[in-house]
Write the structure tokens for this entry.
Amino acid sequence: MITRPAMSLSNPPQAWASRPFDEMRCPTCGARQGGWVDACRRCKSDLRLLRAALAAYEQNWRSALTALDDERYDEAAAHARRCLELRPGAESRRLLAVCQLLRGDWTEAVELARMA
Ligand SMILES: [Zn+2]
């Protein structure tokens, strides 16, 4: 039996709520941008596509948490999987692992947790 965590996922503790993109970096030259900008301050690379991808990631991340909170685990997993596609990394894998755990897909949950 799965017991839900006492906390509300749509009102998460600070660590969960922290935005991973407060500091935007240019993928070309690595320069910190100090905000969401259309072009890199240093090398003038076009950052609009990156910004769009990060915005889509954030939207899917929030949708996944909302769906988890409402116990809509299949939907949460779909949003989490989109997060992993948009931004592969430990954070995305952990979110998808939680979703898969709650869906009862223990195999993928364990696999993701091992990679995270
Ligand atoms: Zn740059």
Notes: The radius of gyration is 16 Å. Residues 49-115 form a domain with the Serine Threonine Protein Phosphatase 5, Tetratricopeptide repeat fold (CATH 1.25.40.10). The mean pLDDT is 84. The chain is about 55% helix and 0% strand.
